[in-house]
Amino acid sequence: MVYQIYPRSFFDANGDGIGDLPGITAKLDYLKALGVDVVWLGPHYDSPGVDNGYDVRDYRRVWAVFGTMSDFDRLLAAMHERGMRLVVDLVVNHTSDQHRWFAQSRSSRDSPYRDYYIWRDGRAGGGPPNNYPSLFGGSAWELDATTGQHYLHYFAPQQPDLNWDNPKVRAEVVDVMRFWLDKGVAGFRMDVIALVSKQTGLPDLTPEQLRQPEAVYASGPRIHEHLRYLRREVLAPYDAVAIGEAVGVRMEDTPLFVDARRGELSMLLPFDIVRMDRDGWRQRPWTLPRLKALYTRIDGAPGEHGWNASFLGNHDSPRAVSNFADDSPRWRARSAKALATLVLTQRATPFLYQGDELGMTNYPFERIEQYDDVEAKTLWRTLVETGRVPAGELLAHLRRTSRDHARTPMQWNASPHAGFTSATPWLAVHPNFLEVNAEAQVADDDSVFHHCRRLIALRKRMPVLVHGAYRDIDPAHPRVFAYTRTLRDEAVLVLILFGSDPLDYVLPEGLRVQEMLLDNGARDVTVAAERRIALSPWQATLYRCGGVAHADGALTPPSPTAPTGAPLR
Ligand code: TEU
Ligand code: CA
After folding, report:
1. What is the mean pLDDT of residues 389-398?
2. Residue 560 pLDDT > 50
3. Residues paired with residue 77 on neighbouring β-strands, in sequence order
4. SS3 at position 450
5. 268 C-alpha to center of ligand 2: Å?
6. Is the CB of 316 under 6 A from ligand 1?
7. Nearest bound ligand to CA 398?
8. Could you identify the atom of ligand 1 that is nearest to the CA of residue 155?
């Protein structure tokens, strides 16, 4: 089970208002109590902080605001003492524009570093070389006055894209990976790794392609060659885990990245669910059947020789309980537990994002000045300041989907600034920290924290929850998410009721529940003999069920002598 830490917002140990590495070390026992096996640490490298570290200035130096290299070594040693492993964030599609390579590259057309990046002349009549948009909004090209050429940046202008067609760049990346592996990290979460191979000739995008440019950016001609190179040169020799961030990857292409026989990545973090409701920067309404259909497709995507990652929150998404469930005071905790149940019962490595184990919620942003995120600011500059979109429309969108919702400081306790810092926090703390905080939840056995802890422990005890076949047993139901996990003669049924109205649910023919394994505190959990289950709002329950499992996850009805659904407590 992987726990994602956004270091800037986790815990501030030196009182400057910004989270840091000693802060993480101070909280390792909390993570151990939760059951964390692996920590994915967001970029900790020296950076000017335009994109909070996703703009690396020196890959071999710890960002001073987070601490020193000995702080990193102490953190890693403290993790190893607790049997935990560390995965670091590999950001090599681009560097910061303050990286020395780029300073050299932009200095002259003859620089030996010119081809570390992607430079092109503008169009004859002026303007950028092609119509590529940046994924943050605006053009993906920036004119550099010194040499009169444009350079490519899929993200902010301060994040120039590296040229992976240059073997020197690929060798530099391998060196950086070896540097951190030699220090003892277990592997990498690879930032936008599918984007590193650029389309030949960089032709304009068609109007259709412009609706989802990342799909073009993620299907470059040499991507699999480059990934096999990394596997051969460094990932295999160190037996390192390679977790690919899959923005832009089409689901049907998943096996090309993760089929173990191809020797590329260990797994992909699929974007289809967290971007399910998006049309560019706008958000579309979604339905539970659509979500369920995506889960079924994602479960099958890696193929029999591949593997998946399962997540609903990260530092680029709004808070899971606000985005997929109900963050009202009455249903926040119950529905956050329901989402954690969903994430932790998939045939995939489960990822929990910091604070989601507490059911932390979106922040009540009102004005653009309250946002920190370069993406929010770029959207404001390119859409509102140009008069294309009314301020109110963009603010309404950002209030639901901005990445800053996930970056408000971790809520540790009810002391000032939620115990995150003794100074003024770099980003506002959510006002609900008095009720929603780790200390209160560790002391409350019925909390989201303890539900996650029990789920993680159960998953470790039951191979069927890790490797069992996944089968949605009621894909059309508008409110119930019901699926089985089956492995040989073991079968678990997961029932989750979305929404705050109770519902009597009738199990499909042939399915019988035998015992309740875990539920999210929906007190009146009963299983009547005739297959009817009275589900209470946002109930999430795991049942062991009878019947013999087949490879496709189908269940043969239990033998007539098997106990029917006896009433449970
Ligand atoms: O995110 C890539 C990515 O998918 C984001 O562009 C996201 O889709 C977009 O912001 C829409 O919300 C990775 C990192 O996770 C992100 O934090 C970085 O900003 C980005 O790459 C550039 O490194
Ligand atoms: Ca600090």
Report:
1. 97
2. no
3. none
4. helix
5. 32
6. yes
7. 1
8. 22
Domains along the chain with CATH numbers: 2-94+165-451 (3.20.20.80), 100-152 (3.90.400.10), 469-556 (2.60.40.1180)
Instruction: Give the residue, by CA position, lying nearest to ligand 1 atom 3.
Output: 247
Per the CB < 8 A criterion, the answer to whether 58 and 206 are in contact is no
* Vertex 63 angle, CA 60 and 68, to 5°: 80
For residue 339, what is the enclosing H or E element? Answer: helix 332-343
> pLDDT per residue over 229-269, tens digit each?
999 999 999 999 999 999 999 999 999 999 999 999 999 99
How many whole angstroms from 467 Cα to the centroid of ligand 1?
30
Is residue 153 predicted with pLDDT exceeding 80?
Answer: yes
- What stretches of 142-235 show up as alpha helix (H) in DSSP? 167-182, 207-210, 213-217, 223-230
Which positions are catalytic? 191, 245
Pocket test for ligand 1, best of 316, 323, 405 (most atoms within 8 A of CB): 316
Structure tokens at 413: 């306790």
Ligand showing the shortest atom-to-Cα distance for residue 193:
1
What lies within 8 Å, CB to CB, of 237 at 6+ separation is: none
Q: Which residues, listed in sequence order, are joined to residue 40 by a DSSP beta bridge?
A: 4, 87
Q: pLDDT per residue over 287-299, tens digit each?
A: 999 999 999 999 9
Whole-angstrom Cα distance, residue 355 to residue 5? 9
CA 395 to centroid of ligand 2, rounded, Å: 30
Tokens in use for 297?
A: 């497709």
Please tell me the predicted confidence (pLDDT) of residue 569.
21
User: Please, which residues have CB less than 5 A from ligand 2, an ion?
Assistant: 12, 14, 16, 18, 20
d(CA 61, CA 447): 39
What is the residue with the minimal CA distance to atom 17 of ligand 1?
316
